[in-house]
Structure formats: C-alpha cells, structure tokens
Amino acid sequence: MRIGTRWLSYDIHGKLRIKSNVVVVNQYFLSSEAREVPDLVIYVGDFDHDRIQELFDEKLSVVYRRGGVLRSKVLLAGLTGRTILLASTPSYRLLRKPGKRLRALIKAVIQIKLIQRGLTYVHSACVCRDSSAAMIVAPPETGKTLTALMLTRSGYKFLSDDMSLVGLGRVVYSNPSPLTIHPIHVETCGLKLGLAKRVEMSLRHKLRSIPYVLLTVDEFRMSAFEVVGERDIAERARVDAIFFLEEGKEYVGELDPEEALKRLKAVGKMHRYLFENEFLQTYAYYNPALDIDSLAAREGKIYEELVEGTRLFVVRSEKRKFWRLVDSVFRRS
Fold first, then answer.
1. What is the C-alpha to C-alpha distance for residues 263 and 313, in angstroms, rounded to an integer?
2. What is the pLDDT of residue 48?
C-alpha cells in the first residue's frame, strides 16, 4: 500500500464499517468517524503480495502475470471476521477505476459482510409513511423508479429505488443510491433539470436505443438527494405491504404467500453477485469456516419474514401508472 493513500470511510447504519481507497457504496454512507476499527478494508492499487500474504492464516490469493503492465493480483483474507481485500488490476492501473470483475467481487464481499450482520439487498424500491413501508417489486424497466418517485411526491418518504437494504423483523433501511432517470420520469414527475442535464439525459437515452451502442453508453443517473431531497429520505421503516408490479389492464389482487416468496426470490436477487461468484466459491473451498449454505439460509430467513408478516398484492397497470393503485391500497391496509 502506498503512503499518503486517500481513504474513504463508510458506515452502513452502524452494521458494517468499511474503509476503502475507491468508491464502494453510495455517498449516503460516507462517515467522518475514522476512529472506529473497520470491519472491511478494501485497497485497490499496487501492494507487496508476498509480504502481506504472510500476515494471514485464512486467505485466498490469486496472482496472474507477476510483472508487466497486465499484471493482476488479488488477496482476500478474514472473510469470517475482520476482512481485507487487496487488488491490483490492469484496468485500475491504466484507467484508475476497478474493472467489471473486480467491482462484482467487491459487491459480493460487501453482501457477505451484510448477511453476517443480519442484512441483505432485495432488488426493489421502498417508500414509507411514518414507520410503515411499502416495498415495490418488479423486473427492470417495469416502473419501480417512477412509482417510488410519484409516491414520494404524494407525501411518502423515500427509502430506496433499486436495491432495498432489509434486515430481520422486516426492517428496511435507507439506501438512496443514484437513480436512473429517463424522459418519462422528468415528464411525469415534473423533475426540474438544467439544460445541460436535460441534453445529456436525452442523448444517452437515444444512444442506448441503438443496438450494440447501449453496451458502451451508461444510463443517465442523478443523485437521490438531487431528485428527492434530503428531507424526504427516511432512515428506516418496517415493511407492511409488498406490491408486485405487472404491465396489463388495471387490476389489484392479493397474492398467496408461497407464490409471493417465489416471486420475491426470483426478482429480488437481480443485480446480485454473491452466490454465483466463482472467486468466493473458491475461497469457501479453501476456507470451510465460510459456510455459503449458512449464509444462504440467513438470507432466506429475511425473505420468509417479509412475506409472512405483510400484505401481498399484484398490481397491474398500463403505461406504468401503478402509483395511484399502490397509494390507494396501502392507505387502506
């Protein structure tokens, strides 16, 4: 590690403290309390692999091309306790940012640390009134973001847009990551964008409609603080209703808990990296103290509690106008 490295400290609701020299979670969790010993240290850059490796008993290390511009090395240690992840990759050396595979590994390690502390991510949006939360579940491009934003403009508080952070007891914690914004969000929600942002959004939206080009152009994103406002972001609430969105003729119906659990597990784990990560599976092979099945069971318990204690609904609507139905049902339930 280099002397003078600029470190970022994160505190995820007092459950997980991270120290990293690269951005690993959204800015909402940035903390100035650097005195606390971190649960997870992440360092991306050059390091003395052999020297550091000697310090740990429980570890997994991979080294490719020890010399040259394309050299790559990773060391992961202490995954069942205080954890350190060190990585040096060509993408960071050349572009100063982690590549796709390394980003996936970082996210997977963070997910393990959260599950160990009784939390997990669910691919969903969440809003709340007082301490009662509505979880909005749907595949991508169905209307979760639009529904959450419109409900926020109707007096609800915002908790999350794409990935909800949920714990035991159906507690959902704020996770206001940057929002993907499309023209429909601007038009329907009345979002006020400056000229530069409006042009950028329109250009990105058009480019991503072209086959193959979309693979090279990122979606237009805005901070949740810009879109929603800090005062309208709640810290936590309890999930009391889950709404499964579907496109179709307007309809609201209750859902059986068994079917709801299957749906929640199917769509709720989208954009997840944990149990399919080959590096972590190999780590578990060499370090049996990391019990993957036990982690999956802990996560499963959180999912089961969500459907056992809440009201469950299928909501269908055309043109993504789900928010009126969700609002009406949630106020009654």
1. 12
2. 76
Query: Hey, which of 74-78, 128-132, 289-293 has the most confident mean pLDDT?
Result: 128-132
Measured CA to CA, the distance from residue 233 to residue 202 in angstroms comes to: 27
- H-only helix segments in 30-126: 49-53, 90-95, 100-116
**CA–CA separation, 258 vs 260, rounded Å?**
5
Q: How far apart are CA 230 and CA 211, in angstroms?
A: 37
Beta bridge pairs of residue 278: none
Q: Which residues pair with 84 in a beta bridge?
A: 41, 77
Rounded to an integer, what distance in angstroms lies between the CA atom of residue 313 and that of residue 135? 10
What pTM does this model have? 0.89
Domain(s) labelled CATH 3.90.228.20 in the chain stretch across 121-177+229-271+289-332
Domain 121-177+229-271+289-332 fold = Phosphoenolpyruvate Carboxykinase; domain 3 (3.90.228)
Give the whole-number percent of the chain exceeding pLDDT 70: 91
- C-alpha dist (Å) from residue 326 to 20, 30, 253, 275: 39, 33, 11, 32
Mean pLDDT throughout 190-219? 86
CB-CB neighbours of 313 under 10 Å = 21
Instruction: Tell me the two tokens of residue 71.
Output: 């050299």
Average pLDDT, the chain: 88
Q: Identify the pLDDT of residue 66.
A: 56
And the tokens for 99? Answer: 């590549």
Q: 61 phi and psi, to 5 degrees? A: -130, 145
Q: Specify whether the CB–CB gap between 320 and 246 falls below 8 A.
A: no
Burial class (CB in 10 A: 0-12, 13-18, 19+), 308: exposed
